[in-house]
Write a structure and sequence with these properties.
It is a single chain. This protein is α+β, with helices and mostly antiparallel strands. The protein is built from 10 helices and 4 strands. The chain folds into 2 domains: 73 residues, 3-Layer(aba) Sandwich (Glutaredoxin); 137 residues, Glutathione S-transferase Yfyf (Class Pi), Chain A, domain 2, CATH 1.20.1050.10. Helices cover 58% and strands 6% of the residues. A 4-stranded mixed beta sheet has the order 2-1-3-4, with helices on one face. Helix 1 crosses helix 8, helix 4 crosses helix 6 and helix 4 runs parallel beside helix 8. The protein binds glutathione (GSH). Glutathione (GSH) binds next to helix 2.
Length: 230
């Protein structure tokens, strides 16, 4: 018997935001299921060994994982592949790789790149996500030095740019590639737009989003993407 499709996700996961944006754009009836961030592997064990979110369960009970293949799957299954079939496929593939390798790496530095911002982020996440009573507090207070100390500092140092500068450079490079059109995909968004939008939108629940808001071209595109959602 057919069932309502479900998306298992974390509300703060950039990869999950990529898929959510497309689901909203296509106006699909999908139930959003938040998982406990401390027990991801266990909570998505029903889908096999993958152990990560997002996991999409379709109306027949089939499981689909990994955000970019998942974007392609949703477009192919529920949208006749229209978003994959706009424009030059080689250009789309090149930029999908660019977005997935550059923008994905820019979210951690902006959210955790300084001790203060790391604390803001983990306390906000502890409110957004589903946690047990103790693990909520533990995550908010013990999580931030971990994210800042081990992960973000290394990334910021490796790149050499301040997290805000990194985002501004990426938004400039990305919007320049729109060739004067409103979206990467031209008159309307394509899959690359939804991937980039997901990474940027994953920063939106946090105060650090204000650091992206003064990139004029990037924000104009971001607002057009929001307007394209159902
Ligand atoms: N390449 C995957 C990455 C997914 C991913 O790393 N998700 C994180 C949450 S943001 C996760 O579930 N991590 C759990 C783990 O690695 O144990 C995608 O694009 O979907």
């Amino acid at each position: 018997m057919a069932q309502t499709p479900r998306l298992h996700l974390l509300y703060s996961c950039p990869f999950c935001w990529k898929v959510r944006g497309l689901i909203e754009h296509l106006d699909l009836d999908v139930e959003m299921v938040g998982v406990n961030g401390m027990k991801i592997r266990k909570e998505v064990a029903f889908a096999g060994d993958w152990g990560k979110v997002p996991v999409f369960t379709d109306e027949h009970g089939g499981h689909h994982v990994d955000s970019t293949p998942l974007l392609r799957h949703l477009d192919a299954t529920y949208n006749e592949g229209r978003l994959a079939n706009t424009g030059d496929p080689a250009r789309q593939n090149t930029w999908m790789d660019w977005v997935d390798s550059h923008m994905s790496k820019a979210t951690v530095p902006i959210l955790y790149g300084s001790l203060g911002s790391a604390l803001k982020t983990t306390t906000r996440i502890s409110k957004l996500e589903k946690f047990g009573f103790l693990s909520k507090r533990l995550y908010a207070w013990a999580g931030f030095p971990v994210m800042w100390g081990f992960i973000a500092r290394k990334r910021v140092k490796k790149d050499g740019r301040k997290p805000k500068q990194l985002w501004h450079d990426l938004l400039t490079e990305f919007t320049d590639a729109h060739d004067g059109q409103p979206f990467f995909g031209g008159e309307g968004p394509d899959l690359v737009d939804f991937a980039a939008f997901g990474y940027m939108r994953s920063v939106s629940p946090f105060p650090q989003f204000s650091q992206l808001e003064d990139h004029a071209a990037g924000m104009a595109w971001y607002r057009r993407m929001e307007a394209s959602l159902a």
